[in-house]
Design goal:
The protein has helices at 9-16, 21-37, 44-56, 62-71, 82-95, 99-110, 168-172; strands spanning 5-7, 40-41, 115-117, 126-127, 130-133. It has 173 residues and is an alpha/beta fold. The protein has one domain (5-146): 5'-nuclease (Rossmann fold), CATH 3.40.50. The chain has a five-stranded mixed β-sheet with strand order 2-1-3-5-4. A hairpin with a 2-residue loop joins strand 4 and strand 5. The longest helix has 17 residues, at 21-37. The radius of gyration is 23 Å and the shape is globular.
Amino acid sequence: MTGPCFVDANVFVYARDPRDPRKQGRSAQWLDLLWRERLGRTSAQAIAEFYAVATRKLSMPAERAWQYAERYFAWQPVAVDEVLLRRAREVEQRYRLSWWDSMIVAAAQLQDCVLLLTEDLQDGMVLGGVTVRSPFTLAIGEPAAHDDVAPMTASRHRPRGRPKRVTERATAG
């Protein structure tokens, strides 16, 4: 892993959901790695979403869900504030994502994350330096794909627009 990794709520949920042992194990492995490497990042929104899903859909007792959610305060989650909202609006307009997904991407960007672990966005998508990956398709600890882009060379095609007029002085030379 080469840099900070943002974890979306669904990864936290799968790590505590016994209904799909494969996803539960995989999510737990990712979270363990991020704790060990101290590269985990998240947001207040993701923690709140986890708590809501854990207490309602997973029928987890509120106290237990809160204890689990509270652990991730150590990752200094991004608060929902003016800075986040403005960045989320830019993300929403540029990438045409839903508002809630835009807030997650914006939070990852604000924390300089290289990777966003989620099942909610297209695997492999790159959004302003953050690569979206599913924790279920990316090998644990595998770095995000980075494409090295070669600098542009001079174009071999004529420039767009009308050709320049050739004057008599220029051709008389």
